[in-house]
Amino acid sequence: MTGRLTPGFPDIYEIWVYLSGSPLLALILTLGAYQIGVIVYERAKRHPLANPVLIAIVLVAAAITLIDMPYPKYFEGAQFVHFLLGTATVSLAAPIYKGLSAMRGRILPLLAALVAGGVTSIASAVGLARLLGADSTIVGGFIAKSVTAPIAMGIAERIGASSGTGSFSQALAGAGVAGIQQHRALLSS
Predict the structure, then answer these.
(1) What pLDDT band is residue 62 in, cutting at 50, 70 and 90?
(2) Rounded to an integer, what distance in angstroms lies between the CA atom of residue 169 and that of residue 96?
(3) Helices 136-143 and 149-158 meet at what angle, rounded to 10?
């Protein structure tokens, strides 16, 4: 038996060897995991704990662990998504600029809240990670948890920490905040 499913098509093993050596596998894995996350999110009636990004991170981490793919090799293929995340983050500047007039006179309280919230978030995440005995690359990944995913990944890479931990903790924090907001909305209605 040759292992071919259909005459004229390549062997499954040949396809796997080609994909596992190509950055295409990481891209397909990333987009597929996110699509599964979106499906779960929709079926969970958009419950914040079914965050599609969080689900995708868990699925990708499990998959690259199972197939024994080193993270740097995975990131080679996922760089395209990383680039698009950065572009999407920059595009958020337009609505902020349009709403700038509404923020005039409130800039100092907003900046104070931003700094206090950021420092508290980072200190609590890093402190908890150290308390639980996490190693320095994991602790470093938590430093960037209070910013957007592409910025978190960039910060983590710069300080030599785990960029996956940075984006995972950022997504987890986002799911927690969304859950609290949904709970408050239900209590106030």
Answers:
(1) very high
(2) 25
(3) 140
